[in-house]
Predict the structure.
Amino acid sequence: MITSNKVTPSILLIFPKEWLPQRRKEWEPLSIAAAEAGFNAIVTDWDSLLPGEEDVKASQCMVMFRCKDCFESKQNFFFNPNIVMTTWGVVEYRHRELFNKIIDKSNSYFSEVDLIGYLDSKCELEKCFRNYELKSGCKVSRPPTFLYDEIHKNDAISKEEMVIVKPDRSGQCKGIEIVSPSTVFKFAQDVENGIRKPFVVQHLVDNKFLYEGRRWDIRIHLLITSLLPLRYHIYHEGIAKTTGAVARPGSMCLEEWLNAESFLEGIQKAENISIHEMLSYIGMKYTPMHDFWEKVDDILHHLSAGIALYAEEGHLLLDKGFLFPGIDLIVGTLGDREYEVKLLEINSHPGLGWKPYSLALPTYRSWFKDLIKLI
């Protein structure tokens, strides 16, 4: 029997079995950052896990021990995780009962909470923000956003040349379309007739601050460890994601608007650079963005407060759960030289396999150091 070090905290990273060979780009940088922060990082799949009387057993797993930079393959490895984390694997893969047994047995902190399932709905998230704005008098900066069942009542959509349609529960840009307002009205009727899933529609953000002719947005992360009282941390690090195609005026071509690597796979390559590099580029070519992070902090404060209010009213508090959403923001043009930052969406289960690794590691290191403090 092999047992983990009782003194060193451990983090359990659970993935579907088919992900382990396919998505090393996700779990390897996470494990490296966790080991650098002081964890033993244990990577395994759902089928290998068995909660026992005193420990959790992994029949097969890979372990990156604290301060190491390579994995060791283990069999019949016993441990008590301090943190349990999974991406897209509890509800979708019907492992909720096993997940609950593991966190109950180990009394660990965990990344999968019921609140995530609600926030993953783009329609529900928009209702969350509206409720917060109504009750607080504050504003969550984002493009004008409408639910599918209210667009017939709003003239703001018909005045746009084109809008972006986002299916209610989707990720990796799946199902997104850029269409004319008349098409959106037909889509709404399709939902009523049961032949299309619910969706939200947003105004496209006008951004003349292009990177080598391409549009871009940014991904940053937020760690929420408590909702009542509200405790969160914003990581002033992240990734600027460019589209794979140069922007053309009036074009509805998705390659000129969307940057997801999954969407562009086999078509054109997007470029990922650090936010620092992007801000330097925009500052030299267009205009300095001196108060960029102040604007981001303001948006994410109201975002967190809105989620906290939603959770309180729905009795969905975190207990020992935590949220680590991926936040997508875009810089829009405001006048000739000014700019504004707007929230595009929240990724409740953010993809964590960015390339190159060096862009993601600073955030992951900071995140795991904060989790060490939490436990």
About this structure: The radius of gyration is 21 Å.
